[in-house]
Amino acid sequence: MTMLAIVGIRGxxxxxxxxxxxxxxxxxxxxxxxxxxxxxxxxxxFLKLVAGLLRPREGSVRLGEITVPGGNAQRAMAxxxxxVPQERNVFGALTVFENLEMGGYxxxxxxxxxIDEQLxxxxxxxxxLRDRAGNLSGGQRQILAMAIALIxxxxxxxxxxxTAGLSPLAATEVFDLVRDLAASGxxxxxxxxxxxxxxxxxTRGVVLVAGRKLRDMRAELLLRDDEVRHLFLGxxxxxxxxxxxxxxxxHE
Length: 252
Hints:
By secondary structure, this protein is α/β, with parallel strands linked by helices. It has one domain (about 1-90, about 155-245): Rossmann fold (3-Layer(aba) Sandwich). Helix content is about 35%, strand content about 25%. It has helices at about 45-50, 75-80, 95-105, 110-120, 125, 140-150, 170-185, 195-200, 220-225, 225-235; strands spanning about 1-10, 20-30, 30-35, 60-65, 65-70, 80-85, 155-160, 185-190, 205-210, 210-220. α3 runs parallel beside α6 (about 140-150). It is globular, with a radius of gyration of 18 Å.
């Protein structure tokens, strides 16, 4: 079942600036879709357009049966979208518990069971409830940021480089958690610089270059794509240009 449908989305940070140049993408329940590409490809901008943090010049975003007005992050969240940015994704001066409260401050009586739900999902947080979020390790902060986003029980979760700056062990732990979230029924769309590890965990891989989608296929197939390995993964033989249609096998 398609949970997120993106059609022809274009936009950037200024009226005359077009960083994302017409991207179509569907993400289904239990899909763990990872977006890779060189620096400046428009990956994070694309996520912000989908999340409603930027207003697109063209295109649409649909969550389930709901078409979300462009640039309306509040409506996107209410319609079932969760977003974890790369930076400033927790309140460092607040405790872990206070951060979780902030994630669901509009829930009223429903807030406590929602927090308990996340503590059951992420037992590590239960032992750190009274600690300031700023004192957590990088990996622990990412877990808290995901828990905050999940308080509202989204059907779609967007993650912007969740392993940036983490140790290899912490990065692996984050990927394990994200894979479990996808298996539980969420649709996951993740931007990630650690391309090799992301494709090893993901179910689908998408390559963005210069604001355009140039590959969309099963992650295991993308790992074997010679041109992708040459450009992003540091190996393989150079073959056809990455923009050629003959290598753009659609996901199955």
